[in-house]
C-alpha cells in the first residue's frame, strides 16, 4: 500500500550535464561537459552548497573541489534511451526510456510535411529549416509581419517550433494554432516530440521572444511513475515545463514559470505548505533555453551560482523524512560549437532529511533508476528497468 503521506521533491536543472556519455561520438558531442566546461571557460564556479553535497566529486569542475564526505548520496546516470532532449530525459526519469528516435529534420522539414501543414492549417510558412530561434526571428521577423505567415523551424532535436509576433497572432491564438499542428499535422512519421509556440514582440533589429512559450509534447505511450503514483493515491504536482512534457497527465497542477527565479519561488512555497504531501516535480529551464542553446557560459555560470544560493532554502524547508533529488535531463554545453543539446551523463544528488547518509555510488545504467528510487520512497513499483538506490539513502 502506498505511503500517501510521504513527500518527495525532484528538481531538474535543465541541461546541467556532467560529461560526455560513452556513445557521445554518435551524436557529435565528444568533449561535452556542460557544468565542467562552463566552469573552465569562466575561470571557476562558486557553489559552496552544492560542493558540500558532492557535486565536485562527479566531474572536474574548476572552483568546486571534491569533498571527502559528501553530505548526500551522489552518482552520475546514463541515458539508455536514444534521445538527448527534454522529453527523452524526463520520460526516462519517470521510468519510460525512448528506444526509438522521434522524427528529426537536420536538412529542414520534408516536402510532404510542408504540404500536409498547408493543407491542414490553410496557410504557408516562412523558414522550414533548422535554426536558432533568436536568429530566425531576426532574419524573417519583418517578412513575417508583412506576410502574416508563421515562422516555422526546427533544431537538432525532435521539435517543430512556430514563432509569431503578437501583432500577427495573440499568445492564445498561437497556442491554439500550435495545438492543432500537434494534433493534426505532426502525426504518424512526422510525430515530433514537441511542437513549441514561440511568441515574440518588438520591431526589426529589436525582436524579442516573450515568456509565452508553450510546449505541446506527445503523450507517453505507456505508464510513467506519475501514472502509477496517481493511481495509488499519491498527489503529483509539476512546476515549470513538467505539465507540458507529460501533457498534464497524472498531475494535480503544473504552473508554468517564466524563469528560474519564478520556479525557485514556487519550489520554496511548496516546501512551506503545511498540508502539502506527495511528489513535487520541478524543472528550471533557463539553463537550457537562455544559456545552453545560446552558447552563453557566463549566463549559465550565473544561473548555477544563483541556484546554489537558493539551495539552503530547500534544505531548510524539507521535513524529516522528505526525499530530495537534484539532477538534470541531458546536456547543453554552452561552450560547444553547436547550439543543440549534448549527450551527457547527468548528476544525481539525493538525500533524505534527517538520515545524514553519505555515499558515492557507481554510475546508474539508466535515468529510470531515479524514478525507481522515488517509487520505493512512496512504496509503489516504478515502470521501466531502473534500479532503486533508496537503501543507500537511509
List the helices and strands and how they pair.
Layout: E1 7-13, H1 34-41, H2 48-53, E2 73-77, H3 86-93, H4 111-121, E3 126-130, H5 133-147, E4 151-154, E5 159-165, H6 171-185, E6 194-201, E7 208-209, E8 214-217, H7 225-231, E9 236-239, H8 242-245, H9 260-272, E10 278-284, H10 286-292, H11 297-317, E11 323-327, E12 346-352, E13 359-360, H12 368-378, H13 390-393
Parallel strand pairs: 1-10, 1-11, 2-13, 3-4, 5-6, 9-10
Antiparallel strand pairs: 2-12, 4-5, 6-7, 6-8, 11-12
Helix pairs in contact: 1-11, 4-6, 9-11, 10-11
Summarize the model shown.
The chain has helices at residues 34-41, 48-53, 86-93, 111-121, 133-147, 171-185, 225-231, 242-245, 260-272, 286-292, 297-317, 368-378, 390-393, and strands at residues 7-13, 73-77, 126-130, 151-154, 159-165, 194-201, 208-209, 214-217, 236-239, 278-284, 323-327, 346-352, 359-360.
Notes on the protein architecture:
- By secondary structure, the chain is an alpha/beta fold.
- It folds into 2 domains: 7-98 and 219-393, Alkaline Phosphatase, subunit A (3-Layer(aba) Sandwich); 111-217, Alpha-Beta Plaits (2-Layer Sandwich).
- It is built from 13 helices and 13 strands.
- The chain has helices at residues 34-41, 48-53, 86-93, 111-121, 133-147, 171-185, 225-231, 242-245, 260-272, 286-292, 297-317, 368-378, 390-393, and strands at 7-13, 73-77, 126-130, 151-154, 159-165, 194-201, 208-209, 214-217, 236-239, 278-284, 323-327, 346-352, 359-360.
- The protein has a 7-stranded mixed beta sheet with strand order 9-10-1-11-12-2-13, sandwiched between helices. Strands 3, 4, 5, 6, 7 and 8 form a 6-stranded mixed beta sheet that branches.
- Strand 5 (159-165), helix 6 and strand 6 (194-201) form a beta-alpha-beta unit.
- Helix 1 (34-41) crosses helix 11, helix 4 packs across helix 6 (171-185) and helix 9 packs parallel to helix 11.
Amino acid at each position: 500500500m502506498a505511503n500517501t503521506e510521504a513527500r518527495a521533491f525532484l528538481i531538474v536543472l535543465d541541461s546541467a550535464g556532467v560529461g560526455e556519455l560513452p556513445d557521445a561520438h554518435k551524436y557529435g558531442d565528444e568533449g561535452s561537459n556542460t557544468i565542467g566546461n562552463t566552469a573552465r571557460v569562466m575561470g571557476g564556479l562558486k557553489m559552496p552548497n552544492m560542493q558540500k553535497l558532492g557535486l565536485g566529486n562527479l566531474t572536474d569542475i574548476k572552483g568546486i573541489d571534491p569533498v571527502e564526505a559528501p553530505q548526500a548520496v551522489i552518482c552520475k546516470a546514463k541515458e539508455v534511451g536514444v534521445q538527448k532532449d527534454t522529453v527523452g530525459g524526463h520520460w526516462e526519469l519517470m521510468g519510460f526510456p525512448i528506444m526509438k528516435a522521434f522524427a528529426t529534420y537536420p536538412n529542414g522539414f520534408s516536402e510532404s510535411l510542408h504540404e500536409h501543414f498547408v493543407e491542414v492549417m490553410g496557410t504557408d510558412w516562412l523558414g522550414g529549416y533548422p535554426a536558432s530561434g533568436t536568429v530566425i526571428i531576426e532574419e524573417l521577423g519583418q517578412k513575417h509581419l508583412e506576410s502574416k505567415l508563421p515562422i516555422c523551424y526546427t533544431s537538432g532535436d525532435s521539435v517543430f517550433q512556430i514563432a509569431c509576433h503578437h501583432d500577427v497572432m495573440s499568445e492564445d491564438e498561437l497556442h491554439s494554432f500550435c495545438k492543432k499542428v500537434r494534433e493534426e499535422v505532426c502525426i504518424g512519421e512526422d510525430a515530433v516530440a514537441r511542437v513549441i509556440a514561440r511568441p515574440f514582440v518588438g520591431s526589426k533589429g529589436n525582436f524579442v521572444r516573450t515568456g509565452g512559450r508553450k510546449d505541446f509534447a506527445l503523450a507517453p505511450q505507456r505508464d510513467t511513475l506519475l501514472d502509477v503514483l496517481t493511481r495509488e493515491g499519491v498527489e503529483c504536482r509539476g512546476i515549470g515545463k513538467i505539465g507540458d512534457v507529460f501533457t498534464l497527465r497524472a498531475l494535480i497542477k503544473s504552473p508554468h514559470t517564466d524563469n528560474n527565479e519564478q520556479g525557485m519561488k514556487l519550489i520554496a512555497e511548496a516546501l512551506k505548505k503545511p498540508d502539502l504531501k506527495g511528489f513535487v516535480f520541478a524543472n528550471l529551464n533557463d539553463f537550457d533555453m537562455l544559456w545552453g542553446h545560446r552558447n552563453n557560459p557566463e549566463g549559465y555560470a550565473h544561473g548555477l551560482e544563483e541556484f546554489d544560493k537558493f539551495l539552503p532554502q530547500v534544505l531548510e524547508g524539507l521535513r524529516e523524512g522528505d526525499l530530495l533529488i537534484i539532477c538534470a535531463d541531458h546536456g547543453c554545453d554552452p561552450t560547444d560549437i553547436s547550439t543543440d543539446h549534448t549527450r551527457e551523463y547527468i548528476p544525481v544528488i539525493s538525500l533524505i532529511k534527517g538520515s545524514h547518509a553519505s555515499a558515492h555510488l557507481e554510475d546508474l545504467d539508466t535515468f529510470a533508476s531515479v524514478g525507481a528510487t522515488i517509487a520505493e520512497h512512496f512504496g509503489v513499483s516504478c515502470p521501466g528497468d531502473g534500479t532503486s538506490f533508496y537503501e543507500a539513502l537511509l
